[in-house]
Design a protein that fits this description.
- The radius of gyration is 21 Å and the shape is globular.
- Strands 3, 4, 5, 6, 7, 14 and 15 form a seven-stranded mixed β-sheet that branches. A six-stranded parallel β-sheet has the order 10-9-8-11-12-13, sandwiched between helices. Strands 1-2 form a two-stranded antiparallel sheet.
- Strand 9, helix 5 and strand 10 form a beta-alpha-beta unit.
- By secondary structure, it is of the alpha/beta class.
- The chain folds into two domains: 155 residues, Quinone Oxidoreductase, Chain A, domain 1 (Alpha-Beta Complex); 140 residues, NAD(P)-binding Rossmann-like Domain (Rossmann fold, 3-Layer(aba) Sandwich).
- The chain contains ten helices and 15 strands.
Length: 332
């Protein structure tokens, strides 16, 4: 059997390469063929595709069909479709506790989005803002788009700030009605009323504006990664607002929660994935099929170039592994 993965073999060059067969299956592990994997555009472009270390093997969200089950595994059977934090590879082999069952009525190409929902799920689980409070999401890329819907579903009054008109339209189509081109910190009906800003853009101006718009003792949570400097803003401008408005400016570190639930710690990374999968399956998180761009692994170079040059038509890019290894795929 041929095993393969997507590898970044040189700067801005992706290809499918053969990889070694999986190691012997452990008693608590499950293994199976990959159905879909999700591209994390921010991390994979900045760290892998345009990085400095090669070869690298990107990817951290996968849905696979269980084919082999460890002797001590319970709750997963052959044929079950599972989500895991797996790479762009033709097979997945993980500890059974890290394989989350995908609801039967949830398409696997949508199920991989649970990984992106998990990024801001930690903020949802740790914020001091209460349902009914005003929450603002800045940046409506893949993570922000999903975060806005998650907070709205959880009972918050949600608004979104996004400079790109096409993305603003997508947010409105998802059911979020209050959408701004820029942060309305000079609007007296908004400024000082926001309990939480979920900052998903990684832009320092957005952070500064978030500190201006939150209420006293409001939270600004840094979910977006500041991959590069965008402005000449001074740290003083942020520090002054933090001091005088008592702003809680904190990291959006998604791993603040434990990986698995335990007594007295019911919320975890994987319980968050379970919630995300349920919300996706029930349709409470609205993801139109047109927002998902499906590419075959052999099209990885094109997919990354489209994302790098902002030419991707959808909001999410997934790799379809269902034909990898088939006669059709080899002939193509």
């Amino acid at each position: 059997m041929r095993y393969c993965a997507i590898s970044i073999t040189a700067k801005e060059h992706a290809e499918v390469v053969e990889v070694a067969a999986p190691e012997a299956l452990g008693p608590n592990e499950v293994r199976g063929k990959t159905l879909f994997t999700l591209v994390s555009a921010g991390t994979e472009l900045a760290y892998n595709y345009t990085g400095t270390t090669f070869p690298s093997f990107p990817g951290y969200a996968s849905v696979f069909e269980a084919e082999e089950i460890g002797t001590e595994v319970e709750g997963i059977s052959e044929g079950h479709v599972c989500f895991c934090m797996g790479p762009h590879r033709s097979f997945q082999q993980v500890d059974a506790r890290a394989a989350r069952p995908v609801p039967e009525d949830l398409p696997p190409e949508k199920a991989v989005l649970a990984r992106l929902m998990g990024v801001s799920m930690t903020t949802l689980m740790t914020t001091t803002a209460c349902p009914g409070d005003r929450v603002m999401v800045t940046g409506a890329g893949p993570v922000g788009f999903l975060a806005a819907q998650m907070f709205a579903l959880s009972g918050y009054e949600v608004s979104v700030v996004e400079p790109n008109e096409d993305r603003r339209n997508l947010v409105e189509q998802s059911g979020i009605r209050t959408v701004y081109e820029k942060t309305p910190f000079d609007d007296s009906s908004v400024a000082g009323t926001i309990a939480l800003v979920v900052e998903c853009s990684g832009h320092e101006q957005a952070v500064l504006d978030a500190c201006r718009v939150v209420r006293k003792r409001g939270e600004v949570v840094l979910v977006g990664v500041p991959w590069r400097r965008h402005t000449d803003a001074f740290a003083y401008d942020v520090l002054s607002l933090v001091f005088h408005k008592y702003v809680v400016l904190r990291s959006g570190w998604e791993w603040e929660l434990p990986h698995h639930s335990a007594d007295f710690a019911p919320h975890s990374i994987h319980s968050g994935f379970d919630t995300a999968l349920d919300w996706l399956a029930s349709g409470r998180i609205d993801v139109d099929k047109d927002l998902i761009v499906r590419k075959e692994p052999r099209e990885a170079q094109t997919a990354y170039q489209d994302l790098l040059n902002k030419q991707a038509h959808g909001l999410f890019t997934v790799f379809d592994w269902t034909r990898v290894g088939s006669d059709n795929e080899r002939d193509g």
